[in-house]
Automatic annotation (TrEMBL):
<dbReference type="InterPro" id="IPR036696">
    <property type="entry name" value="YdfO-like_sf"/>
</dbReference>
<dbReference type="Pfam" id="PF07166">
    <property type="entry name" value="DUF1398"/>
</dbReference>
<protein>
    <submittedName>
        <fullName>Uncharacterized protein YbcV (DUF1398 family)</fullName>
    </submittedName>
</protein>
<dbReference type="InterPro" id="IPR009833">
    <property type="entry name" value="DUF1398"/>
</dbReference>
């Protein structure tokens, strides 16, 4: 693997606001991160390199039950509000957020 979770955490500690996020993404890309998956149910993040090798942060909180029902319009409204408050954010093109099975 081309990076360590500690290297990623060190870059993440530099993020103080949404304005810092693009530099964070560029920094972890330079470390060799090609994409990552965040598991909403427990906060674990799995990072992938170009060889599809992975490193994980481990769970950050107790398991959350995620509703099977989604109010898509409410979600879009809340997401837009979040982006206005956090500032513009550039994400890795292959980033995914999915429910952990």
């Amino acid at each position: 693997m081309k990076f360590t979770i500690e290297q990623i955490k060190a870059e993440h500690r530099k993020v103080k606001s949404g304005a810092d996020f693009p530099a964070y993404i560029q920094a972890i890309k330079k470390l060799g991160v090609s994409n990552y998956t965040v598991y909403v149910t427990d906060g674990n993040t799995q990072y992938f390199d170009t060889d599809n090798e992975t490193g994980q942060t481990g769970k950050k909180y107790d398991h959350l039950t995620i509703s099977e029902n989604l109010d898509l319009e409410r979600f879009k409204t809340r997401l837009k509000l979040h982006h206005r408050m956090a500032g513009p954010i550039i994400l890795l093109s292959a980033m995914t957020v999915r429910k952990q099975e």
